[in-house]
Amino acid sequence: MTDIFTILKNVSVNHQPVAGTEIVVTDVQGKPNGLLTDLVHDLINDALLFVNLAEIATADDLIARLHAHTPLPDDVLEEYAKILAERCYGLNFAPQKGQIEIIVHR
């Protein structure tokens, strides 16, 4: 299995990084997880403005770069580290909804 960092780094839509509005985190039955989805949206829409994922090899590198180059507090970075390490069990593309569902086991 993979993690959310790997998904964000490697999945693109029309050769562009995924947008926060396209991502929904769900459980294996397809039920959305609002808390995890909101964290991913915050990460994509706010933190990733400061870095280029193509230049970053690991989630730890990303957190270190955000720590060095943003005013984000440590508790926010800790939450980002947790969500980036969340194990993924698959992706579901839902074009009728305009969504990419990242499937986690919660």
From TrEMBL:
Domain of life from the UniProt record: Bacteria
Protein name: Uncharacterized protein
Organism: Levilactobacillus namurensis DSM 19117
